[in-house]
UniProtKB/TrEMBL annotation:
The keyword Lipid metabolism does not apply. Residues 80-119 are annotated as: Disordered. GO terms for biological process: lipid transport. Residues 103-119 have a biased composition (Polar residues). Residues 1-78 form the PH domain. It is found in: Cytoplasm. Residues 85-97 have a biased composition (Low complexity). CDD domains: PH_ORP10_ORP11. One of its GO terms (molecular function) is cholesterol binding. This is Oxysterol-binding protein. GO terms for cellular component: cytosol; membrane. Gene3D superfamilies: 1.10.287.2720, 2.40.160.120, 3.30.70.3490, Pleckstrin-homology domain (PH domain)/Phosphotyrosine-binding domain (PTB).
Length: 671
């Protein structure tokens, strides 16, 4: 490529070759306020960071030419910065990498730079930043923290060399590419660079706000540093992982309990089990005796090395939907069942309809919602449920004693521990019946649907959730895309709610889960809305599992209730009249769900479908569990290939697509 530096205008241009310099340049870069730094990524490389976020990587022929160009470029950048030149020639963000080692450069005093080819030289231009990121980058003060950016650029090159050196080692022997310490080094070095990049972003934002009194909050993109690149985008090469790489087709990695937790909280009430298309006999249902306790993921060396190798292959921000995850991190239940387990306090759910006023009903909804998470997760163990296969269903129900369903602020019995065994033998006439059905309606993207109803209370919930997970270095984040709607037919009210995100932290030691993000609950008819915020733990200090909530009457802009505490601990509610109420989620009695025995379930119902995987996990036989899981997923892939060949789309059994969402086929409001 042929480069021209115009000192007067402060513009660096490049052309395909010298003959095309009379034409429009292929690219231009304003040097006003730019940072020019040497790079160790390859010999004789220098990097030009412009003030608007663009970056050029150039390789000189030798050390002398490299230094000459660094001097000239820095002089030009300084001159135009001092002249307060703010001309930016291009708003596009791109990185030009002159990679091949056969590039020869010759510089002339006039400021023209010739990139002549002594071999097959390639210039690749990669658009690595979004337009929004470029605009944010433009707003940054160009001269700040430039030394830090230079050092980070050098470290990026060193980290790349480190990774390449490790991957070049043999796969066996005294020092192999799969050595636990080396895998840990790869994973932590990538995460460290990511963390430092985020820190740099925060510093730049602070300096920008101080310097220009700019109040707009910038999102956390690495503004002055492009971030470490993934050097292992190919498939996993670890022979020890061959069984794993074929074992999981769509690891939705609703990943850790947390992901499911999130979704469940908002769908805790989402299922009905009496359907015209399939006979689900209530008489066959029995009180569930399954123990959902899960042990912490240990730090066994063989397991850690598998996780480390997996992490070392991932790119920051990578979507993990189709990433293969090891079997030993699985819970012994499907994601669909996990959503049902968030209905462990159905008495609080049914109490919503008992509210005398719209204000009481939305406050009851918030109280139920905040207590729905802790029981679905026994502790904060970061294991993930099975990813449901397309067409998988889960049915269950609850018998809720009528004396447990209290009106607003009188349901004190629900906040005091009782003997749950007394409720199991309740006569049907003294109980409300709550039914739940879930179905996996889509494979890519992985979408789960839920419907839950109580005919006697004339209330039901319909929800759909799409899980999106991302790799974040030393943690994994799961977003729950979708929404649920609670219908109170007696009051003609609909409450729309969204779902929080979940995060698996410390994935290299003993993983744990926390919820994060802001959830909205709103009723258009009454004008009431609530905002629930799940606070993630700060890097330094701070409490874990914090949650705050605020209920507001929008027409009068009046706050009628506030709540704070821990979603898996104690919650304190304060009402507009000064009253307070404390709920200890650990003392709330659990009403166990009722479910049919496996022998009476259909072939696509969760417990029957996954029974062999569950049994193997209980026995501690990870190899057998992996094999059974692999068979299920291979069958799913074969069926999908057949549907594609016959151009026959999958048709869900209980839900139908409507707009961007999914609705239960026979909801209570229709019957």
């Amino acid at each position: 490529r042929y480069f021209v530096l115009d000192f007067e205008t402060g513009i660096l241009q490049y052309f395909v070759n010298e003959q095309s310099k009379s034409q429009k340049p292929r690219g231009t870069l304003s040097l006003a306020g730019a940072i020019i730094s040497p790079s160790d990524e390859v010999p004789h490389m220098l990097v030009v960071y412009s003030a608007n976020g663009e970056m050029y990587k150039l390789r000189a022929a030798d050390a002398k030419e490299k230094q000459y160009w660094i001097t000239q470029l820095r002089s030009c950048a300084k001159h135009h910065k001092e002249g307060n030149s703010k001309s930016i020639s291009s708003s596009r963000s791109r990185s030009s990498s002159l990679l091949p080692p056969g590039t020869v450069n010759s510089a002339s005093p006039s400021g023209q730079k010739h990139m002549n080819q002594s071999g097959p030289t390639v210039v690749t231009i990669t658009h690595h930043k979004s337009p929004a990121a470029a605009r944010r980058a433009k707003s940054q003060r160009s001269g700040q923290l430039h030394e830090v950016r230079e050092i980070m650029s050098q470290v990026e090159g060193q980290q790349k060399n480190l990774v390449q050196a490790i991957e070049a080692l043999p796969s066996s022997g005294p020092l192999s590419a799969l050595d636990q310490d080396l895998l840990l080094l790869k994973a932590t070095s990538a995460a460290t660079l990511s963390c430092l990049g985020e820190c740099l972003t925060l510093l730049q934002q602070s300096m920008h706000q101080v310097g220009q009194h700019h109040n707009r909050t910038l999102s956390s993109g690495i503004l002055g540093w492009p971030g470490p690149k993934s050097h292992s985008t190919e498939q996993l090469r670890n022979g020890a992982l061959s069984s794993l790489s074929s074992a999981s087709a769509n690891i939705t990695w609703a990943i850790v309990p947390s992901a499911a937790q999130d979704a469940q909280a908002l769908q805790p009430n989402t299922e009905v089990s009496v359907l015209a298309s399939e006979l689900i006999l209530v008489e066959d249902e029995m009180t569930d005796t399954e123990d959902n306790e899960e042990e912490d993921l240990g730090v066994m060396d063989d397991q850690r090395s598998v996780i480390l190798h997996l992490i070392s292959q991932l790119k920051l921000g990578m979507d993990l939907t189709r990433v293969v995850l090891p079997t030993f991190i699985l819970e012994k239940r499907s994601l669909l069942e996990m959503y049902a387990n968030f209905m462990a306090h159905p008495d609080l759910f049914l109490s919503i309809a008992a509210g005398a006023t719209p204000e009481e009903r939305i406050i009851c909804f918030v109280e139920y919602y905040l207590t729905a998470f802790h029981e679905g997760r026994k502790g904060a163990v970061a294991k993930k449920p099975y990813n449901p296969v397309i067409g998988e269903t889960f049915h269950c129900s609850w018998d809720v004693p009528k004396d447990r369903v209290k009106a607003f602020r009188t349901n004190g019995a629900s906040t005091v521990s009782k003997d749950p065994t007394k409720e199991f033998g309740q006569e049907q006439s003294t109980c409300y019946k709550l039914r739940f059905v879930a179905e996996q309606v889509s494979h890519h993207p992985p979408v789960s649907c839920f419907y839950c109803e109580c005919k006697e209370k004339k209330m039901c919930v319909n929800a759909h959730v799409w899980t999106k997970s991302k790799f974040m270095g030393m943690s994994i984040g799961v977003s729950m895309v979708g929404e649920g709607v609670l219908y109170l037919m007696e009051h003609e009210e609909e409450y729309v709610f969204t779902l929080p995100s979940a995060y698996a932290r410390s994935i290299l030691t003993i993983p744990w889960v926390e919820l994060g993000g802001k959830v909205n609950i709103s009723c258009a008819r009454t004008g009431y809305s609530a905002t629930v915020t799940f606070h993630t733990k700060p890097f330094y200090g701070g409490k874990v599992h914090r949650v705050t909530a605020e209920v507001k009457h929008n027409p009068t802009n009046t706050i009628v209730c506030k709540a704070q505490g821990e979603w898996n601990g104690t919650l304190e509610f304060t009402y507009s009249n000064g009253e307070t109420k404390v709920i200890d989620t650990n003392r709330l009695p659990v009403i166990r769900k009722k479910i049919r025995p496996v022998a009476k379930q259909g072939p696509l119902e969760s417990r029957r479908l996954w029974q062999h995987v569950t049994h193997s996990l209980k026995e501690g036989n990870i190899d057998a569990a992996t094999e059974h899981k692999h068979r299920l997923e291979e069958r799913q892939r074969a069926e999908e290939r057949q549907r594609v060949a016959l151009t026959t789309p999958w048709k869900p059994k209980y839900f139908a697509k409507e707009g961007d969402g999914w609705l239960y086929l026979n909801p209570l409001w229709k019957t």
